[in-house]
């Protein structure tokens, strides 16, 4: 270090102005060390305060997802409850489950374990509508969020006219838009379907039940979780602009996530699908489904 021609250093007088700063004596060195420690303490305390302030901010209120661009996802941020591993809400089966709990039972029928659910099990169909590829990733909070491999997932939904097979007038003998898939090693099940319609009073959705395994689907009391998947508003509006969905477009205008009987509790924050694609080429929708086999 070069000699200093100044008689001051950091606001303090140098005991030996003709010597280097490092040769000012033990007393000067100790005072310099104490000052540095004080500065470090102050910096550390400030950083801790900033960290605490960041951690204690109120979480932002989830907003209804905006319409996705073509091929771009419409999804909740990584900090959302779904990404954080919050258990999927338990929801009503609704009046059209077809699982034997209120009469009709598709889960007893041969061929119900299938990926493409557009046709009925007797081969009639498929039902028309905007193409939809649906993927659910099922994890078990009881094992720290590991995949629930081997579990069975049953989905059912309405067609573009709002009809449920096995229940609605004219389709009571049909079994379209119902099917089961087995969770693979990555925790995933995949279905080929059509974009569901919107009927009065309900936000567009797909129902699903999670069973412990393939053998368990014939016992509706063995269900691990029953819930529903919702679709972003912009995606629904785009889909309902397509031929055949005119009535759904009108019904969507009369319902919101605030008024929907299922999703109004939390605006479907853990049930809102991530959607890519468009209404012409078709959509791909995905949802993380966190269940807890301890409950």
Keywords for this entry:
single chain, 295 residues, alpha+beta, five-stranded mixed sheet, four-stranded antiparallel sheet, 4 helices, 16% helix, globular
Which stretches of 5+ consecutive residues score pLDDT under 50?
Answer: 1-6, 32-72, 75-82
Radius of gyration: 30 Å
Order of helices and strands: EEHHEEEEEEEHHEE
Described by the principal axes of the CA atoms, the overall outline is: globular
Number of strands: 11
> Counting H and I runs of at least 4 residues, what is the number of helices?
4
Helix amount, in percent? 10-25%
- Span of the ends, CA to CA: 70 Å
Kindly estimate the percentage of residues that lie in beta strands according to DSSP.
15-25%
Q: What do the pLDDT scores average to? A: 82
Helix and strand composition category: alpha+beta
The largest sheet is: 5 strands, mixed
Can you walk through the features of this model?
With 295 residues, the protein is α+β, with helices and mostly antiparallel strands. It contains 4 helices and 11 strands. Strand 1 and strand 2 form a beta hairpin. The longest helix is centred in the first third of the chain and has 30 residues.
């Amino acid at each position: 270090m070069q000699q200093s021609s100044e008689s001051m250093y950091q606001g303090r007088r140098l005991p030996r102005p003709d010597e280097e700063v490092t040769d000012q004596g033990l007393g000067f060195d100790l005072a310099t060390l104490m000052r540095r420690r004080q500065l470090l303490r102050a910096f550390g305390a400030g950083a801790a305060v900033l960290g605490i302030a960041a951690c204690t901010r109120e979480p932002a209120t989830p907003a209804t997802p905006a319409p996705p661009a073509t091929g771009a996802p419409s999804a909740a941020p990584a900090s959302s409850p779904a990404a954080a591993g919050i258990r999927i809400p338990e929801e009503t089966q609704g009046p059209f489950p077809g699982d034997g709990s209120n009469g009709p039972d598709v889960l007893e029928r041969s061929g119900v374990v299938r990926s493409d659910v557009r046709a009925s099990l007797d081969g009639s169909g498929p039902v028309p509508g905007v193409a939809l590829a649906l993927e659910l990733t099922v994890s078990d909070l009881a094992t720290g969020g590991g995949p629930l491999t081997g579990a069975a997932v049953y989905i059912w939904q309405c067609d573009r006219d709002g009809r449920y097979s096995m229940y609605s007038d004219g389709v009571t003998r049909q079994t379209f838009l119902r099917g089961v898939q087995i969770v693979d090693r990555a925790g995933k099940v995949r279905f080929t379907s059509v974009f569901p319609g919107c009927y009065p009073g309900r936000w567009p959705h797909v129902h699903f039940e999670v069973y412990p395994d393939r053998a368990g689907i014939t016992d509706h009391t063995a269900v691990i979780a029953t819930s529903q998947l919702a679709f972003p508003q912009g995606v629904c509006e785009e889909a309902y602009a397509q031929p055949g969905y005119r009535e759904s477009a009108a019904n969507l205008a009369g319902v919101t996530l605030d008024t929907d009987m299922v999703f109004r509790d939390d605006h479907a924050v853990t049930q809102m699908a991530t959607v890519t694609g468009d209404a012409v080429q078709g959509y791909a929708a995905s949802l993380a489904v966190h269940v807890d086999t301890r409950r």
